């Protein structure tokens, strides 16, 4: 366990950096407009493996809606790097700006929960499942509250890729099942609320060196975010 704790120090970089959020709007006259709200941690914010912020999967989802579905998009990205499910839950319950945008939204995408797991891992690896359990409960509140604010919105929730791919096999033997458990809880809560679960490990994990090129950082590059966006597009097209 001590070795695992030491190994986790590098992994602490996952989705935990300086807070970042932005919003963009576009609503041409005479064109049907999609109102798209992105929520989550640094994956939705577009944090890269080398400490910079670039285009995120949410930006590419917006681009897809505009270019391939020929729709105007009013886009608000409220993702914050380092965010936990507790913080996002508080936003959904109390941040009036975000609540109003959700009320007006057509599509909401979410990625959240990894930081809940990581914070427990860094303090006491034996309690990592407590972080996963907390994320599950908070996600239930997040999704049910969104449904209450806007019963007609299409909600898509991301499952995480494996952030531990560069770790030795003996360390991954402990950590990967945790990530799998987190994704299982995310999928379960998403489906229970009638929303759409979007897995990403099936596309990222087998090419992790290409999309997660920095062994010292678990974030994806822009090409990786494009791949995640493609998975969201597939799910959205199925729901059309």
TrEMBL record:
GO molecular-function terms, A-Z: phosphatidylcholine lysophospholipase activity
Key words of the record: Signal
Top-level taxon of origin: Bacteria
Gene3D superfamilies documented for this protein: SGNH hydrolase (3.40.50.1110)
Coiled coil start-end: none
Residues making up the signal peptide according to the UniProt record: 1-23
SGNH hydrolase-type esterase domain sequence ranges: 38-227
Pfam families in the record: Lipase_GDSL_2
InterPro entries, A to Z: Ester_Hydrolysis_Enzymes, SGNH_hydro, SGNH_hydro_sf
PANTHER family (UniProt xref): SPORE GERMINATION LIPASE LIPC, THIOESTERASE 1/PROTEASE 1/LYSOPHOSPHOLIPASE L1
Protein name: SGNH hydrolase-type esterase domain-containing protein
């Amino acid at each position: 366990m001590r070795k695992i704790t030491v190994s986790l120090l590098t992994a602490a970089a996952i989705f935990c950096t300086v807070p970042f959020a932005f919003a963009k709007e576009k609503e041409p006259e005479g064109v049907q407009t999609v109102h798209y709200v992105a929520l989550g941690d640094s994956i939705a914010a577009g944090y890269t493996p080398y400490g910079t912020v670039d285009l995120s999967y949410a930006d590419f989802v917006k681009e897809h809606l505009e270019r391939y579905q020929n729709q105007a998009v009013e886009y608000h990205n409220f993702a914050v790097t380092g965010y936990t499910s507790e913080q996002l839950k508080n936003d959904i319950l109390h941040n009036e700006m975000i609540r109003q945008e959700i009320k007006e939204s057509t599509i909401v995408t979410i990625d959240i929960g990894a930081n809940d797991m990581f914070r427990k891992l860094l303090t006491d690896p034996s309690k990592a499942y407590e972080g996963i359990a907390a994320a599950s409960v908070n996600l239930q509140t997040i999704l049910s509250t969104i449904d209450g604010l806007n019963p007609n919105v299409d909600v898509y929730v991301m499952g995480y890729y494996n952030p531990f791919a560069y770790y030795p096999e003996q360390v991954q033997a402990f950590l990967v099942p945790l990530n799998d458990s987190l994704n299982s809880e995310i999928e379960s809560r998403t489906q229970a609320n009638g929303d759409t679960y979007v897995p990403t490990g099936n596309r990222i994990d087998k090419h992790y060196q290409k999309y997660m090129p920095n062994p010292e950082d678990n974030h994806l590059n822009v090409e990786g975010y494009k791949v995640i966006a493609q998975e969201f597009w597939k799910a959205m097209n199925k729901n059309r």
